[in-house]
Amino acid sequence: MKQEIECKTTEDASAAIAAGDYPVISGNICLSVSVDCRIICKSGQPHVEARESSQPHVEAWGSSQPHVVARESSQPHVVARESSQPHVVAWESSQPHVVAWGSSQPHVVARGCCQLSVRGNIKVQATAMVAVIAFGLLPEIDGAGFVSRVDLSDAASWCEYYGVETDATGCALLFKALDDDFCANYNRFPYVPGTAPVAPDWDGGYKECGGGLHFSPSPMLALAFFPSAVRFCACRVALNEIVTHPDGVSPEKVKAPRVLEVFEVDRHGKRI
Known about the structure:
The protein is mainly β. It is built from 3 helices and 22 strands. A 9-stranded parallel β-sheet has the order 1-2-4-6-8-10-12-14-16, covered by helices on one side. Strands 3-5-7-9-11-13-15 form a 7-stranded parallel β-sheet. Strands 17-19-22 form a 3-stranded antiparallel β-sheet.
């Protein structure tokens, strides 16, 4: 079983990665990785270099300031949390994906013909051959040759991006993962086939969590919010009542005050 291993030296961290475990780094050690792995940075200024076609997952927590370098065709996924300040440098044909949460402040420098994907409060400095996909309005991009903004602030754009089925009546088909009694995971709210549930606590869409009924674009994405789910349902929801939170913690989730129709489906979205 994979486990988190406290590592104070490069040798310890390399051994943990080789064993398939997750090194937890609290110092200024240096790592060069060419395999897929998960690296957790708790403090200090560790240096992580991704090479070849590796896809390491680097998490920055607390006040850590990891320096992540992406080279060759590597695709590191860097997640910044709390007050961390990771510094990401992309070279050659690498394709880093950087996400910022909380009060973190990642800084990304991109050179060569690399491709970036960024989300959250991130500052990017790039050269003319760099392509950047920026999710939401928070990332600040300077100097990139090609910048594509993915604005999912309205329901129609969100549905198009996630491939959600819409119809001529102005409704979208969204999904819930449920228990055996057709109840949601967190609040046991029922989504019984044949009913039209209404949220008892609708907040006008203000908060990302709570204050309404929440939905995913597919049963499999809904499963991420309820891993032990045994049933799935499809919900017809009016597009003009769907609220998105593109810069939230879970931008793939939306909310609405009510459902027009509920019917049971399998995990692939096929009606049962």
